[in-house]
């Protein structure tokens, strides 16, 4: 499986927010999308999920043009966790997770609702309406729902939102360990470096860097594109640890 972007251009209203982009995303990769606010990460993730139509260019999945795939066929391959989840769902935690059964291909092995409730530490809340949960608890429900879909490709838009530090590391590590291909946007450089083998730095809709974390998370890139001074606390080739010293004066 391979996702290919061919001269993909994405608009929001009349404004182009992702400039013509070519990109190959391969089976098995754990990809982190990083970039300042408004750089186009959400728009790009939604386009890959078939939720945002290209202004021009195209996206293909295993050589099939995404726009030609039926929504249910797409849902059988990928799940997406969006930033804005409904807060007023009249469903219980258990039933919200189970909703994803509709998108899970018949016969595909995957975790049970009970297993996911345990993994996300939601078992005591199984029968609580989602509308009565805290922001972090709700985020765990929708992560569990995406995992229940048992997708080959998992798209996550700022999945660490609202999660306490334990759940950021434990649940996101679980996603990266159990799903074949993960493409996720992150604002936390160290989480992205630890979880991903490839980082794509998007700035004003243009890819400015693409490679292993140690190549992308350089003090020069962080200064130029995020406006912060930083230093590396370790030179671990797999997962550089970044200390942000402050905003550039
Ligand atoms: N519904 C919309 N209508 C008009 N413009 C929009 C809409 N959604 C997003 N935009 C604009 O598109 C640009 C890209 O937004 P996008 O949400 O993709 O960025 P992002 O990198 O995910 O940002 P963040 O890190 O803040 O979540 C921004 O300038 C934003 O203001």
From TrEMBL:
Task: Give one GO term, molecular function aspect.
Answer: ATP binding
List UniProt keywords, sorted A-Z: ATP-binding, Nucleotide-binding
Pinpoint the ABC transporter domain residues.
3-229
Show the SMART domains listed in the entry: AAA
SUPFAM superfamilies for this protein: P-loop containing nucleoside triphosphate hydrolases
Q: Does ATP-binding appear among the keywords?
A: yes
Q: What protein does this entry describe?
A: ABC transporter ATP-binding protein
